[in-house]
Amino acid sequence: MAGPLPLGDPAPADGRLPDDLPIDPDAPFSAYLHVPFCRVRCGYCDFNTYTASELRGARQDTYAETLIQEIALARDVLAERGPLRPLSTVFFGGGTPTLLPAGDLGRMLGAVVGAFGIAADAEVTVEANPDTVTPEVAEELAAAGVTRMSIGMQSAVPHVLAALDRTHRPENVRTAVDAARAAGLAVSVDLIYGAPGESLEDWRSSLTTAIALDPDHISAYALIIEDGTKLARQIRRGEVPAPDDDLQADMYELADSLLSEAGFDWYEVSNWARRPSTEVGRSAADQRSRHNMAYWRGTDWWGFGPGAHSHVAGLRWWNVKHPAAYAQRLAVGESPAAGTERPDADAALLERILLRSRMAEGMPLDAIAADARTRVAGLIADGLVEAGPALRGTLVLTLRGRLLADAVVRALTD
């Protein structure tokens, strides 16, 4: 299970938003639907997820109806503040959304679309464990309105999967990709690098296997050791080595090189999308994750489900963590929100720099404080920031800058 919820102000029981919240009726609006169930807990994971033994009274078979109650509450809350905005993106995350029947996911999607409407070109993504995807599941999800599947591959090497406590069969990644493709879905695969015992050649094997799947999008995340996880305890006891920063840097450079050669462009430090093409059989569509871009750009979204976070017009709030507590709140007509905060100008600027600087589209230099802008020349000299875009008013990281993105943020905010 995830760590403690953030500190913040108490959230109102009725879920109402502050009267002075400046909601922009033209701003994009997204929905995140959290499915907090997993068959097993991966050793590195600190997400708000629960195995069957941890549910303590919560039920998977009634979860969809519970979440639909929050959708109804959200619609009422936002309708008080003006016209409802159609959804630009919808994302089912977890946990493992595909542990639920496809029909349950379809009902949740139908409820949120029915409440808010949806843009004609909206992106609707479902995260999936490879072992849970069949042609029938993919077809049912596509028929319900899903447009994209994000498949948790993580690695193609059995001993690396074992180190991460991943239990799926590696060959089922291809099965899941083929099923999603046959149903007309765009496909993303997720990878993790830097697991205990993973070599550079192991990582090369995972990358080449992922590329051979011919997905539209690949995410590659460096393994981070989170406090409270099984893996953190194993490292503390000396049972497995901690990630090697230098090896992870080599792995990142290898990923960027192989993915670029294979026709993928980086658009965020950990994400690559296939270059648009007009070749026969290949969509020319932009394959970047528009839902994640909404987060990075700081637009509005409502997060549904236990532990989900929301953001509207600068206001943030988060739901109670446990599925049982979440269901109990909604059963008596109360908002499941546990706390709320409205970051001040300094905190909002820090977050904007932290997120926007990681994107290939860059960050306008005029969004940075004037005294910090004087440090950009030094970042260019150090090979961390591209000179050409900076001269045109936009900060864009070099490959070296992507490896040292945190240092760039510190230079612009200290």
How are the secondary structure elements laid out?
Elements: E1 29-35, H1 63-79, E2 87-94, H2 102-116, E3 118-128, H3 135-144, E4 148-154, H4 158-163, H5 171-182, E5 186-193, H6 200-212, E6 217-222, H7 230-236, H8 245-261, E7 264-268, E8 271-274, H9 290-297, E9 300-304, E10 309-312, E11 315-319, H10 323-331, E12 337-341, H11 345-356, E13 363-364, H12 370-373, H13 376-381, H14 387-391, E14 394-395, H15 399-403, H16 405-413
Parallel strand pairs: 1-2, 1-9, 2-3, 3-4, 4-5, 5-6
Antiparallel strand pairs: 6-8, 7-8, 10-11, 11-12, 13-14
Helix pairs in contact: 1-2, 1-10, 2-3, 3-5, 6-8
- Strand percentage: 15-25%
Strand order of the largest sheet: 7-8-6-5-4-3-2-1-9
What structural category arises from helix and sheet content?
Answer: alpha/beta
**Rg:** 21 Å
User: Would you count the extended β strands for me?
Assistant: 14
Give the terminus-to-terminus CA distance.
33 Å
Shape: globular
What percentage of residues falls in helices of 4 or more residues? 25-40%
Biggest sheet record: 9 strands, mixed
**Helix-strand string:** EHEHEHEHHEHEHHEEHEEEHEHEHHHEHH
Low-confidence stretches: none
Number of helices: 16
The pLDDT mean sits at 94
Tell me about this structure.
- It contains 16 helices and 14 strands.
- It has about 425 residues and is α/β, with parallel strands linked by helices.
- Strands 7-8-6-5-4-3-2-1-9 form a nine-stranded mixed β-sheet, sandwiched between helices.
- Helix 3 links the parallel strand 3 (about 120-130) and strand 4.
- It is globular, with a radius of gyration of 21 Å.
- The model has no long low-confidence stretch (mean pLDDT about 95).
